[in-house]
Structure formats: structure tokens, C-alpha cells
Write a structure and sequence with these properties.
By secondary structure, this protein is mostly helical. Helix content is about 60%, strand content about 0%. The chain has four helices and no strands.
């Protein structure tokens, strides 16, 4: 179950970054030491996104657990 939660967390983070990277940057900026917005954007290229898409069986488990995925998983 923890693995699924981690994947969901990563998906949510990724969606937030895609929708409004500057707002995301402003949220995490207190945790970034001497990193401006341009450096933050450049650092995103270093992230390897492992979960391009959730497998069908995982989506089914989420659905069967009444976990709403409509707005976070496409």
C-alpha cells in the first residue's frame, strides 16, 4: 500500500508542477537554499519520472478502494 501512496504523491506533485510551476516554486522555496526560479526549473530536468502512467491493476485497486482518481490521474 505504501508504494501506491508514493506513486500517487508523485503524480500529484507532477500535476501541480505542470499546471503552475511558479506557484509550486513559491510553495517549496523556503526549503530550497539559494535557488532562484530559473535554477528550480532547470533542476526539474534532472528528475527521472518513474511513473508515466499507472498500471491498470493499480487503477482498479484504487477504484475498488473508493479512491477518487478523476482529477489526479488521467
Amino acid at each position: 500500500m505504501q508504494c501506491i501512496q508514493k506513486k500517487i504523491f508523485i503524480i500529484i506533485i507532477k500535476k501541480l508542477l505542470q499546471n503552475n510551476p511558479y506557484e509550486f516554486y513559491e510553495t517549496v522555496k523556503p526549503y530550497l537554499i539559494n535557488t532562484n526560479y530559473e535554477e528550480f526549473l532547470a533542476s526539474l530536468n534532472d528528475i527521472i519520472w518513474l511513473n508515466k502512467e499507472l498500471p491498470e491493476d493499480v487503477l482498479n485497486k484504487l477504484y475498488n478502494s473508493n479512491f477518487r482518481t478523476k482529477d489526479i490521474i488521467k
